[in-house]
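Help!! Second protein's tokens look totally different from the first
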Amino acid sequence: MNKITQLFKIQYPIIQAGMIWNSGYKLASAVSNAGGLGLIGAGSMYPEVLREHIQKCKKATSKPFGVNVPMLYPNIEEIMKIIVDEGVKIVFTSAGNPKTWTPFLKENGIIVVHVVSSSAFALKAQDAGVDAVVAEGFEAGGHNGREETTTFTLIPMVKEKIKIPLIAAGGIANGRGMLAAMVLGADGVQVGSRFVASVESSAHENFKKTIINLKEGETQLTLKELAPVRLIKNKFYEDIQNLYKKNPTKEALIGLLGRARAKKGMFEGDLIEGELEIGQIAGIIHEIKPAAEIIYEMITDFELTRKEMLNFGF
């Protein structure tokens, strides 16, 4: 057992990221049943939809699972109340100040983890009383840090500063990546993109098929003036780049983004006008597989690679 498996009472130190429009109860329960920690992504759910997913997840697994809550979303008070009322034991918070909700969650006996993109934010999260942090590198899909620090450099820098358990995220999709992150100082890993292309993901099949055909360099971080996000280079992405050539105002960028653009792309499968969020590591994802098979392959790859390293004989 390591710090992460002990903290969450799980078999493997693998956490499935709570991604908007991808992480419903089917994926969360499948990951938890396979020995990892599944997370329901509250960011794409109205409060009552979240309640329904929590209740269905409790029926689908007897293992620990959690909820990921981006704190910039509306209805946050209602979401937190539902989490407590439904007896959720693990919450991952992101996109906000950890001091805002950590005391409330801790008072209700909930394990709290906060997602950060720098060692400075990691220290703030530790000071706020969280139980662990996820340090997410620039490679990650979806909303990202402004610092553009890669996972390879971020993990050792955060490790140097904090005393609480550290989970690495961004660019990890197989056992080799998991081992590399743990050698750099992580106690566990959070995996997003690999689980988007799973059978149980709630992503549209069009989006899943696009992911498994992506090549290196076909994603880009953009919209830094609003909230940095890594996207597949489709027509919507090109529209953003063309608007940038006109030196747009923040309001003009908001106007182009509009509402429900991520839902249109990832959930409804509009590959042209939709916002398609995925990480750089998509270039090594070639098949849509069940979540349990993904975890099995990661652990097998992790163990084989570790043995290979021991045989180097330095």
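Here's the second one for comparison:
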Amino acid sequence: MNLTGAFYALIAFAVFASHDVVIKLLGASFSPFQMIFFSTLFSFPLITFMLMRDKTPGNLRPVHPWWTLIRTTCATINAMGAFYAFSTLPLAQVYAILFASPLIITVLSIPVLGERVGFHRWAAVVVGLIGVIIVLRPGTADLTLGHLAALSCAFFGAFASIIVRKVGREERTVVFMLYPMAANFVIMGTLMTFSYEPLPLKDLGGIATLSLFGFIGGLLLISAYKASEAAIVAPMQYSQIIWATLFGYVIFGETLDMPTIVGAGIIILSGLYIVFREASGGTSNNTPVLRTRSRASSAASFRISPFLRRSKTTQ
């Protein structure tokens, strides 16, 4: 068993957790719209250099315009949800909710991909959703816009991932990557005019750091999936809860309450069960969770699957 990929993945998700800390720090002073706009602006040159290596013939017209439109919409809402949730909620609580994405992907794969989900994975989905309810504890704690933002991030990020699984091989990488960036640039640029705050140089540097962390994290994930099987790499995403607990306590004075600990544990175990169930062979025709390799909850990160496919074809 090659554990090199797990090592790369652990570093990648530590970088992503640091990325989310920067969001929370900047979120105290700036709107999500402004942060997404400038992080997209700084990410564009980095991602463009990667896209320049795409020699696939074609143009920027999508093969599946409606799916591309839906995915672009989902990616835009996903970014807004992530930035707002990290700005307003404790880090560990946001991660606990975002970890429900594999459960949502499993459910959405039925109507979108025609996936057949058996009793075991359905049971994992139900148990995982119970974990989400425990984290949110409706009726005993106030549900805020931050919780709604985290839930929308998990749902729309899962939806965007399923669409990639459905038509990603037929669309050019440049289409799937540039359309959401263009949408973020235009939409967030418009919305931030209503709440714009001047950016001191240090805060502008912080937003540039967001783009850099998202880019570096993506490169590390590519290295992880090149080195090891997806079943080894995918579970490493849950290490973010450790970083969230540490960063939350040291930097923001946050502490974990028992419902978040219990609920997060249930969600993680359910997600792990689905990953290993798909990896066991014969239980999933599409392996939608295992093949969701990009980190979707950031406007600064990018899709890594096309670059993994390209590296395999050149080996």
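Reply: Different proteins will give different token patterns, so don't panic. The chain has a mean pLDDT of 87.
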